[in-house]
Amino acid sequence: MSEKDDLERKLSEMLVEGEMEQGDRIAKEIREISPKYEIRIQTTMDPIVEETLRYRKIGHELDDRYDKYLERAGKNFNSQEDSNKE
Question: Superkingdom, according to UniProt (predicted)?
Answer without folding.
Answer: Bacteria
